[in-house]
Amino acid sequence: MDTSPSYDTTAAALLPLVGGPANVTSVAHCMTRLRLGLADRSLVDEEALRALPAVLGVVDDDTYQIVLGPGVVARVTPEFDKLVGSAGELAARGAELKEEQRARNATPGKILLRRVANIFVPLIPALIGCGVLAGLNGLLINMGWLPGVTAALAAIASAFLALIAVFVGYNTAKEFGGTPVLGGAVAAVVVYPGVAKVTAFGVALSPGQGGVLGALAAALLGTYVEKWCRTWVPATLDVLVTPTLTVLIAGLATLYGLMYAAGEISTAIGTAANWLLSTTGPFAGLILGGLFLPLVMLGLHQALIPIHTTLIQQQGYTVLLPILAMAGAGQVGAAVAVYFRLRHDTSLRTTIKSALPAGLLGVGEPLIYGVSLPLGRPFLTACAGGAAGGAFVGFFAMLGDKVGATAIGPSGWALFPLLAGNRGLGTTVAIYGGGLLTGYGVGFLATYAFGLARQSRPLQAERAERAERLTDPSSG
Predict the structure, then answer these.
(1) Has 30 been annotated as catalytic?
(2) What is the pLDDT of residues 335-354, one digit of tens each?
(3) How far is CA 333 from CA 2, 51, 167, 336, 383, in A?
(4) Alpha carbon 143 to chain centroid distance?
(5) Reduced to 3 DSSP states, what percent helix, strand and coil does the chain have, rounded to the nearest 5?
(6) Is the Cβ–Cβ distance between 324 and 288 less than 8 Å?
(7) Where are the alpha helices (DSSP H) in 299-368?
(8) DSSP element (H, E) containing 82
(9) What is the CA radius of gyration of the chain?
(10) What is the dihedral of CA 106, 19, 4, 348, to 10 degrees?
(11) How far apart are alpha carbons 355 and 351 in whole angstroms?
């Protein structure tokens, strides 16, 4: 049944609660969140926003983020955008305010991570789609089914990864203020088969050498070359000279330097990931699984996107994502424990019931911002569950049983169709499933035993007491 009218209704319900059209300066979305630029955040009725059935959580960051969940956000955003006004009007009204806000929040680290995310996050839907098809094709091949179809599926699933460098280059130039198609053209050098005839540092190059890192570096250099050209090339010659010099200079630098350097870095990343898990598997899994939720809170997880993509290009899957996904399992276990312990808090139990399905599918924001963070200690016990699940998967990696994901984005149960490994699909699924159960169990037990020692009253009463302690110096 078509439920599209609900997206109109959701957009209409959201708009007045964020201050109306005049308060919205930009509208965008990622996989799960509606990201809004707001002129005055004091006009937001956050309590009413959280109460809306479609809203899974709210995050106040560089943009005001309303968590709606995968699929839903992509349908609500255009409806919301229509209600606010055209993109041109938004840009004109909000450009100055947006720049002021960015200047206040702009640190080199935040800017770098935001730009990395802007380059790679738009590629995630294609990575997911191709990853699922690659997994399905592998299953068909292993079963010996439909041999006439597998070659076609292999082509469809592999084509995007074969040319991902072009998309990375396009997005890089777009993000850094260059001409996107020139960024794509320079990055295309990395995957062009003819580079096998070129020798750099005494070694023949290989198509794809350097992968996404080489493409990113090539497009970034091309953007700076393009901007430099525009400072001295006469306007009458710009259309001919600037693109030519951009492609020539950046292309030569890519062939005779960047591809080789990026190839060495990419190889080092793959070697380091394999060594880490094969020699310190449980410890590495414990650290990665336990710290991922705090990394997400700080936005530092975005730095891992190029690493995941590099591993997928090199090995066909990233061995890091299944371990990091254990953090979501710990979060689910912690939320279930809170549900059973706080039987008197009907509001919180309702939040958990509505957010738990999303948590099981790897969308952790509703449980993080609606349950564990407001309560405090359950966030730490959720991290303990993630650490236990990560150690479980890491232990088997040390034994030689690799568990990887052919795409990034999904986690939890949604990652099962994307799993791959070196011991067959059955073993891979069993190890990942065992990690999830370990994360659920430890997250539940740790939270039930230690996470709610002082949580015998409704959450609202605890919040009020905390606020009183913070505002009253005599309370200690």
Answers:
(1) yes
(2) 999 999 988 888 888 888 88
(3) 34, 24, 38, 5, 10
(4) 33
(5) 75, 5, 20
(6) yes
(7) 305-315, 321-324, 326-341, 346-360, 365-367
(8) helix 72-84
(9) 24
(10) 80
(11) 6
Return d(Cα 249, Cα 254) in angstroms, integer. Answer: 9
Say whether pLDDT at 91 is over 50: no
Token output for 137: 């094709």
Distance of CA 271 to the CA centre of its chain: 23
Coil, strand or helix at 395: helix
Asked if residue 466 has pLDDT above 90, the reply is no
CA distance linking residue 357 with residue 362, whole number of Å: 9
User: CA 380 → CA 277, 327, 433, distances in Å?
Assistant: 24, 11, 23
CA–CA separation, 372 and 386 (whole Å): 14
Domains in the chain: boundaries = 5-106, 122-278, 316-468
Helix (H, G, I), strand (E, B) or coil at 463: helix
What does the block give as tokens for 4? 């599209």
Q: Which CATH class is domain 5-106?
A: alpha beta
Triad 112, 115, 119: Cα angle to 5°: 140
Please give the structure tokens belonging to residue 18: 């964020």
- Position of tokens 């407001």? 374
